[in-house]
Specification:
The protein contains twelve helices and ten strands. The protein has 281 residues and is α/β, with parallel strands linked by helices. Helix 7 runs parallel beside helix 8. It starts with a helix and ends in a 6-residue tail after the last helix. It comes from Blautia hansenii DSM 20583.
Length: 281
């Protein structure tokens, strides 16, 4: 019965038309500091704009859910409650600060926790994931990983190598996670190699991309990732720092769920930015 509960919650995270997942995350303050995260200074305003674009889910911490999610209870948008994070002073070690029981009490559809692989603290992080994974199985709660090859042994220029990304996603799968968020390798051919390293039932989603510098880069990465078998996105910084957050969420949704090309998405984005008729999409 617990596994049925997990299946029910996972189904809420995925669009039935595309079989893809689109989540937007606003959990960055603990890990990166709040001062540089200008798009999240007004956290309620950021959430309001994102919700208007109708993603499938949003990732946030317990405290933000408690204080900001009330207007959107019953909206059909799932909450993925983040229960761990790293910090500016410990960037390779995710520490657990939340719990599965609290997320269940608050109506979240999944919990998410992270790890930085191939570094000094991998063992401790994997031990924590294993414990939480077992408890999630017993409670019927999906577990989403934010797993990146950013440990001390990985040079900066190898953080997007397909071998290191494949290690992240395979580790998440072997640890019993249900979905893993990780970095896009940079091209569809190498990302397809990553996808092939886990069972077809295991969902890989990508982050917004540290290497994306322009809107075109961002949209093209999203289109390429969907085409090579990636199961969705969990994006943050580029979205809520964009000049028209709601319009960008809608344009991304049309790439992910409606199969829009980059050209079609840019045309839609321009129209939305001009007309502000978000509710029609």
């Amino acid at each position: 019965m617990a596994m049925m509960g997990k299946d029910v919650r996972l189904a809420r995270l995925v669009n039935p038309k595309s079989n893809k997942m689109m989540a937007i995350t606003v959990d960055h303050a603990i890990s990166r500091g709040i001062a540089p995260m200008t798009g999240l200074h007004d956290i309620q305003g950021a959430i309001d704009k994102i919700v208007a674009g109708k993603p499938d889910a949003m990732t946030m911490t317990k405290g933000i859910q408690e204080r900001c999610w009330g207007p959107y209870v019953g909206s059909g948008i799932s909450v993925l409650q983040k229960i761990s994070n790293y910090s500016p002073t410990a960037p390779t070690n995710d520490i657990v600060f939340g719990c599965v029981d609290a997320a269940i009490r608050m109506g979240a559809d999944a919990v998410s926790m992270g790890a930085m692989t191939l570094g000094d603290f991998q063992n401790e992080q994997f031990e924590r994931i294993g414990e939480v994974s077992d408890y999630c199985d017993r409670m019927g709660m999906p577990l989403i990983g934010h797993i990146y090859p950013k440990g001390e042994s990985v040079p900066t220029d190898e953080r997007t190598s397909w071998e290191n990304i494949a290690y992240c996603v395979r580790s998440a799968c072997e640890l019993g996670m249900d979905v893993v968020k990780t970095t896009y390798t940079g091209d569809p051919e190498s990302m397809a190699k990553v996808v092939a390293c886990v069972p077809s039932s295991f969902r890989i989603v990508i982050q917004g991309g540290d290497s994306c510098k322009t809107l075109d880069d961002y949209l093209q990465m999203t289109r390429d990732a969907m085409d090579c078998g990636v199961g969705g996105v969990t994006m943050g910084r580029f979205v809520w720092d964009y000049k028209d957050v709601t319009a960008l969420v809608i344009a991304l949704r049309y790439i992910i769920h409606e199969g829009y090309s980059v050209k079609e998405a840019k045309e839609l984005l321009a129209q939305l930015e001009n007309d502000k008729n978000y509710e029609q999409f």
